[in-house]
Write the structure tokens for this entry.
Amino acid sequence: EDQVTQSPEALRLQEGESSSLNCSYTVSGLRGLFWYRQDPGKGPEFLFTLYSAGEEKEKERLKATLTKKESFLHITAPKPEDSATYLCAGYQGGSEKLVFGKGTKLTVNP
Amino acid sequence: DTEVTQTPKHLVMGMTNKKSLKCEQHMGHRAMYWYKQKAKKPPELMFVYSYEKLSINESVPSRFSPECPNSSLLNLHLHALQPEDSALYLCASSQLVGELFFGEGSRLTVL
């Protein structure tokens, strides 16, 4: 069964303390890996698309990378406003369906 | 305009009521989606419309009925729901697969 597993489930950081979130996948024939940010009670916000191993995308304090087995979301010098749940999703093609991970809840304390 | 607008934001309904959730996008996206999300869970796909035609129905019970009147609008008609159907219902649109633009959701409570 195609799966996307995120770790850790929750992460608490101090402001300025850099870290990484992990997304490992067993989606056969992965055609795309996507990262989203979700604030409480809101819809997810699209962040990045990664298509091939070695690819990297950056936006402000966030950088997403992809290997053949996993993706990382690196957060550099985070701020309290980066607190959110980060979701990754895999796409294997053939339909519009994404396989979502359960998310990592990030809390950044001032 | 990069927004997906959902109405209403909150809805409370009894098990015998009929109600509808509405979604609108003006980005010219070819695909529109309904997702259901329970607390502390990822979004769960319900329906996908591509070029105004239903392309995916994830075995959703018939008490949920989607409708796509045109390329900008998506409705979800609700009838005879159960309390376990209470959730956040998210609409999304996309032009590229996987790059979804979500609305803020409609919080549904079934009494």
Notes: Chain A touches chain B through 21 residues (CB under 8 Å). DSSP finds no helices and eleven strands in chain A. The two ends of chain A are 41 Å apart (CA to CA).
